[in-house]
């Protein structure tokens, strides 16, 4: 690993060996409790910008919990308590003065099941830019909608029926619509929680192709149960087990020569 | 290593391992018999070696097909992927060892009617004994996933190279002494070269074992003792 610029973090004296060159998101000693349950233990990770970072691990390992910390989605769960520090571009996202709505505009999210609004395709994409006041005119809004749909590789398929309901699209198209909706507010980070688990292999391949294209402009974090998918789309991979971040590193390293026995057992299908 | 959740995956890998072991046994026997046939000038024994090579070729094809099927069906990762890739590579080396042993046997048949000074055969036999020990060690190292033992084999090949260089010089001397030795000595030269090449394939297997066990390819150059490429008749005269 080459020399990394030091990140000035209070309480984080030594740079972890797994630090990355240009971290977009920096997490240190993140702990999550759901009531009495200690769901996440001391997670520290750097997430590089313009790259795809995959979180893998068995069900209940904490990977989705951690993903949801990055845009404070866990705030919506009453019993949930998050401690530690998560920074976006060096700014503490759990700072009291921070506007959570603004944060979620910067850190977008795509869910496991495509969840378009029960509105037209156009409105699904236009909704975010409108409430955030990103467009001054109808023409400008039209342009944002078209650009977002193009970036999500959906425009050609829906350009003649933008007024049709978003829920009438196929599963794969709905998921791309949700990605277009996330992109429309110009986020910097896109979190994806098993975005392909409800899709067939062809729709999955199109989303993976899209993720690869989006990486040029966005920081992407994806939670996936498919190890092949993690191996295919990500540059870095983090393995979670029993609420702990066990191992993280370049994807090719994790999938060919993992260092921790638990990682090896999981990716080779030896978990008892 | 603990077992896979899908037990038929373990069966697939076990089958690959046992087929490699079978190939190793055949290759060992072919090399041993070829040397014995040379020493005893036994053309009949040499013929059985030539026949045995077909089985080795069939096994190699079988291992390759199974390995490819395993990759397609199981998408092996990490140590499993190295295991499958290593099986393909080791099978390839063992198949080449078989070819070289077969060619050695063919040359034994060719020279079985020639006059020969027994002393030179002794040098080749000694080299073959060393190579057979190397082959046995490397096959054991593969079966036991023993990197240290594989690295010992890898280091020791230098001695075989040095021995080959001295046989090369010795054969040149015989040929210069009496042109009637040329046919026999030329065959013996190729035969010695075959055995030296078998030694090189054992080091390939050793490198594969290192990769299989550690996940890292050997990046350093192997110590080499074969100077025959630079040997001239002037050098032999001195």
From TrEMBL, chain B:
Keywords attached to this entry: Cytoplasm, Phosphate transport, Transport
Domain PhoU: 20-108, 125-208
Pfam families listed in its UniProt record: PhoU
InterPro entries: PhoU, PhoU-like_sf, PhoU_dom
Compartments reported by the entry: Cytoplasm
Signal peptide (UniProt feature, chain positions): none
Physiological role: Plays a role in the regulation of phosphate uptake.
The family this protein is said to belong to: Belongs to the PhoU family.
Subunit structure: Homodimer.
Protein known as: Phosphate-specific transport system accessory protein PhoU
Organism expressing this protein natively: Chelatococcus albus
């Amino acid at each position: 690993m080459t020399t990394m610029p030091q990140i000035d973090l209070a309480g984080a004296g030594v740079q972890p060996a797994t630090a990355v060159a240009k971290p977009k998101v920096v997490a240190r000693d993140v702990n999550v409790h759901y009531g009495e349950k200690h769901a996440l233990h001391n997670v520290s990770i750097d997430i590089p910008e313009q790259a795809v970072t995959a979180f893998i691990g068995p069900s209940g390992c904490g990977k989705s919990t951690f993903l949801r910390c990055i845009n404070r989605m866990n705030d919506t769960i009453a019993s949930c308590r998050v401690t530690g520090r998560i920074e976006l571009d060096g700014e503490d996202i759990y700072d009291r003065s921070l506007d959570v709505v603004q944060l979620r505009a910067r850190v977008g999210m795509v869910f496991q099941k495509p969840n378009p609004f029960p509105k037209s395709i156009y409105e699904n994409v236009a909704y975010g830019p409108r409430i955030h006041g990103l467009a001054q005119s109808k023409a400008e809004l039209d342009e944002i909608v078209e650009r977002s749909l193009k970036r999500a590789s959906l425009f050609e398929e829906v350009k003649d029926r933008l007024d049709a309901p978003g829920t009438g699209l196929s599963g794969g198209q709905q998921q791309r619509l949700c990605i277009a909706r996330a992109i429309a507010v110009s986020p910097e980070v896109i979190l994806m929680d098993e975005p392909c688990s409800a899709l067939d292999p062809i729709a999955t391949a199109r989303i993976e192709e899209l993720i690869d294209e989006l990486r040029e402009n966005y920081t992407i974090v994806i939670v996936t149960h498919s190890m092949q998918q993690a191996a295919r789309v990500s540059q870095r991979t983090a393995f979670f087990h029993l609420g702990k971040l066990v191992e993280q590193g370049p994807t090719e390293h994790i999938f060919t020569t993992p260092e921790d026995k638990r990682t090896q057992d999981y990716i080779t299908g030896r978990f008892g | 290593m603990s077992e896979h959740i899908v037990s038929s995956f373990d069966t697939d890998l076990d089958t690959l391992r046992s087929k490699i072991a079978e190939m190793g046994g055949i290759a060992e026997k072919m090399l041993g018999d070829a040397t014995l046939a040379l020493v005893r000038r036994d053309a009949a024994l040499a013929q059985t070696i030539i026949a045995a090579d077909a089985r080795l070729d069939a096994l190699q094809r079988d291992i390759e097909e199974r390995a490819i099927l395993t990759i397609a069906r199981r998408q092996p990762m990490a140590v499993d992927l190295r295991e499958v890739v290593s099986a393909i590579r080791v099978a390839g080396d063992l198949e080449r060892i078989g070819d070289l042993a077969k060619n050695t046997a063919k040359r034994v048949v060719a020279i079985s009617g020639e006059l020969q000074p027994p002393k030179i055969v002794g040098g080749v036999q000694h080299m073959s004994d060393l190579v057979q020990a190397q082959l046995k060690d490397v096959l054991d190292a593969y079966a036991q996933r023993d990197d240290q033992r594989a690295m010992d084999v890898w280091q020791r090949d230098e001695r075989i190279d040095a021995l080959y260089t001295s046989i090369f010089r010795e054969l040149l001397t015989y040929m210069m002494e009496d042109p009637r030795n040329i046919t026999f000595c030329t065959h013996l030269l190729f035969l010695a070269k075959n055995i030296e090449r078998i030694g090189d394939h054992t080091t390939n297997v050793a490198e594969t074992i290192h990769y299989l066990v550690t996940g890292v390819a050997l990046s350093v150059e192997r110590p080499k003792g074969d100077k025959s490429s630079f040997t001239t008749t002037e050098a032999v005269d001195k």
